[in-house]
Amino acid sequence: MLTKRPDMAAMPEAPRGARDLLYLREAEIRLAQDLLFFGYRGFTQRPDRLLEELDMGRAHHRVLHFVGRRPGITVGDLLAILDITKQSLGRVLQPMIAEGYVTQAAGRSDKRQRLLSLTEKGAALERRLYDAQRDVIMQAYREAGPQAVDGFRRVMRGLMGEAAREEIDRLEKGTP
Amino acid sequence: MLTKRPDMAAMPEAPRGARDLLYLREAEIRLAQDLLFFGYRGFTQRPDRLLEELDMGRAHHRVLHFVGRRPGITVGDLLAILDITKQSLGRVLQPMIAEGYVTQAAGRSDKRQRLLSLTEKGAALERRLYDAQRDVIMQAYREAGPQAVDGFRRVMRGLMGEAAREEIDRLEKGTP
DNA sequence: GCGTTTGGTCAGCATGATTGACATATCCCT
DNA sequence: AGGGATATGTCAATCATGCTGACCAAACGC
């Protein structure tokens, strides 16, 4: 498949140069795939190592992160953010409650709700994970420069769906 | 933990404004975490759906991608890129060979090596996955603009380790 | 009072990762 | 030619994280 390239058949009479543009575009997209794969791995590597020592995984980190980000979040909202099933969350969340990383409190207006928050212990662990990840991000931001950071943000926002974009805006503001 | 913020104790006599800067920096890092989580999910979502229909997972996609990117790659090099164990790769790779997505050929200089390449069938599937992912990336790139794309690349490179950065350079050139 | 919503829980399954141990073929150096 | 190192494959067992379907309990709200 070394000689087969995209959309060639679809442009049998493409103008001179169009073929080269397609090659260029493909190289650009392939590079993006590689960057996302290796970059995301670099981003998760250090927290993963810390979590391993505590017999936890990335799922636990996500709970710590989003509960810390939005204290008093309901189980339902957390499920919507993580986009996993109630059962999958339960298996991670219940042990975290039992071991005192997360607390539940009945909602004041709706008593069915279990509002989730981090305990001191949970917040301390979250901060350790945050610090590890912060170092990696700060380093990348410093090397790249502020303008690059802005570009990074724009592209990442574009990669996610509309729902996730709204979720991010909500997280940035507080809890509207 | 709503009132506890980073490094406060470490800067008891910080100048006016330093405290605000720390708040700002934390918000920046938290945003980066959210962007990477939701962005990466958006990036993998469409291929994941296609793969599901064929009873494959993300691991299969990674093999198709990197073998397609570097035809004739050795098992060892692929392992180094994916950073998984031989056994983990074997469970994904062997069925793909059996079902005719990937072929093996003995290395000409070193006959121990099994040089991996995509078959027509494998390349066709890889292209379907690529096309799905390309649409998402192109959309994000178009919305963000070329300058943002450059910034995105810089930051993502910064997030990965030195080894991954070299690997990306190697992939971009060909197979040095 | 009754249907709906929120949350928890049970049993079972798939995927993709892990480790340790061992086998085979080939390479390369002495 | 011998022998250690290298490249790959394979066995068995385990773990983490996702899934489904079914069902229950409590509280809401009309």
Runs of chain A in which pLDDT lies below 50 for 5 or more consecutive residues are 1-12
CATH superfamily of chain A: Winged helix-like DNA-binding domain superfamily/Winged helix DNA-binding domain
CATH architecture of chain A: Orthogonal Bundle
| DSSP, total strands of chain A | 2
How many domains of chain A?
1
Described by strand count, sense and barrel closure, the largest sheet of chain A is:
2 strands, antiparallel
* N- and C-termini, Cα separation of chain A: 52 Å
Helix percent of chain A reads: 55-70%
CATH fold label of chain A: Arc Repressor Mutant, subunit A
Radius of gyration of chain A, Cα only, in angstroms? 21 Å
Tell me, what is the CATH class of chain A?
Answer: Mainly Alpha
Secondary structural class of chain A: mainly alpha
What's the SSE pattern of chain A?
Answer: HHHHEEHHH
